[in-house]
Amino acid sequence: MAKSNYITRTGWNALDQELKFLWKEERPKVTQAVSDAAALGDRSENAEYIYGKRRLREIDRRVRFLTKRLEVLQIVDYHPKQEGKVFFGAWVELENEQGEIKQYRLVGCDEFDPSKNWISIDSPVARALIGKSVDDEILVDTPSGKVRLYINRIWYEK
């Protein structure tokens, strides 16, 4: 399954800031450290040199990824027409059959964060929620079987 190219403005800004930090601050520092370590002589047993070169490759790989990804990402801003229904960027309060309540925000695959209860728009739960309203019931396939969830509340950060 291909991942979607949607992202919130906050998520896009975070990736853009990471790219700028890596390119303008982190990379020049590491490049200087590698240059300094190289000047010390034998590079084959020089841990600072070896680690620095490895870190430069990691930075360059991440910079390439972020540059390409930011070009194709589509920022999705809140629109008043979304009110009352679940769409990208929505916060949703769900209740399972045991009465347990959880809140999730539907975000792009580049910004999902379980610690913040942000789930990817590409996840089974998010796909089942799209277009639904308060009091709707959804059935989600999970590895442990089908789960029935009820939508208690929907809201957006404006």
UniProtKB/TrEMBL annotation:
Domain Transcription elongation factor GreA/GreB C-terminal stretches: 82-156
Keywords tagged on the record: DNA-binding, Elongation factor, Protein biosynthesis, Transcription, Transcription regulation
BP GO annotations: DNA-templated transcription elongation; regulation of DNA-templated transcription elongation
Superkingdom: Bacteria
Start and end residues of each Transcription elongation factor GreA/GreB N-terminal domain: 5-75
Coiled coil: none
Pfam family, one: GreA_GreB
Molecular function via GO: DNA binding; RNA polymerase binding; translation elongation factor activity
Protein function: Necessary for efficient RNA polymerase transcription elongation past template-encoded arresting sites. The arresting sites in DNA have the property of trapping a certain fraction of elongating RNA polymerases that pass through, resulting in locked ternary complexes. Cleavage of the nascent transcript by cleavage factors such as GreA or GreB allows the resumption of elongation from the new 3'terminus. GreA releases sequences of 2 to 3 nucleotides.
Protein family (similarity comment): Belongs to the GreA/GreB family. GreB subfamily.
Name of this chain's protein: Transcription elongation factor GreB
Organism listed in the record: [Haemophilus] felis
